[in-house]
């Protein structure tokens, strides 16, 4: 079983079956008895809409476990859902994709959560490596491959060759920070208080990283709470102002890409110029992001065929070619 334990979404891959589960990484908990009321999509609908005794939370922040107990509950729930009606998967071997910049303590927390959730063996793989394998890059060959994986909580920039990471940089600025920038912009400029889900909707509907042809047509009515009157209000926003709102976190991502390119050995840099840069993760779906990176670096940027699933597809390919790709793991633990 391969798991992409993401800040925003968790995806599960089972050998021979493909991707069997794709759910938001959200858990709704009854605060009195600490029991989960809903997990995944059902819990996401409750974000910002719960009564006092119920709390809907995301157990992962910036790509790492922020609430260990809740993360364990969530993993257990997803593993059990995948097991329903199946035999022979009682204590599975699990490969989990994690950000390359996490500490040893954070790695152990992920391993422990998976072990407690019923895994037999737990293997960890760095997300950029898994994303590159999932995107179909030839990571086993002696050529330079560059991948940018923009998730919910972290952006991973890595140069890979011969099944290993030559250079990598992990910045804790990604999809969540882009949504937060929109949230703050709406508060400052329009005096409108909106929730996380609304900010994410704005980003998906009219957000862009680079001026597009249809920019002037992209407008959206946003509903929220007006700061001055304290009453619900609808405000019309345009695409260009949302792009301006996201400029700061996007600059952090671009700087991380440039720093990685500056440190790349010349032979590998030549390969990257020939092959281009691969863009993966949910952040790759932001309109014009590939154009912005290409404009800033002067290198062609390709968006993966299925950017959201790259990491989990990579974990699945590693499971199915275990002996050939055994060197890509960054950590492991055995339970039995």
From TrEMBL:
Family label: Belongs to the FtsA/MreB family.
Major location category of this protein: cytoplasm
GO cellular component term of the entry, any: cytoplasm
Subunit structure: Forms polymers.
HAMAP family linked: MreB
Annotated function: Forms membrane-associated dynamic filaments that are essential for cell shape determination. Acts by regulating cell wall synthesis and cell elongation, and thus cell shape. A feedback loop between cell geometry and MreB localization may maintain elongated cell shape by targeting cell wall growth to regions of negative cell wall curvature.
Record Pfam families: MreB_Mbl
Key words, A-Z: ATP-binding, Cell shape, Cytoplasm, Nucleotide-binding
The keyword Cytoplasm appears for this protein: yes
Name this polypeptide is given: Cell shape-determining protein MreB
CDD domains xref list: ASKHA_NBD_MreB-like
GO biological process: one example: regulation of cell shape
Molecular function terms, GO-annotated: ATP binding
Classification via InterPro entries: ATPase_NBD, MreB, MreB_MamK-like
Chain positions recorded as ATP binding sites: 7-9, 152-154, 200-203, 282-285
Organism phylogeny: Bacteria, Bacillati, Cyanobacteriota, Cyanophyceae, Oculatellales
Location in the cell: Cytoplasm
Keyword Ligase set for record: no
Gene3D superfamilies: 3.30.420.40
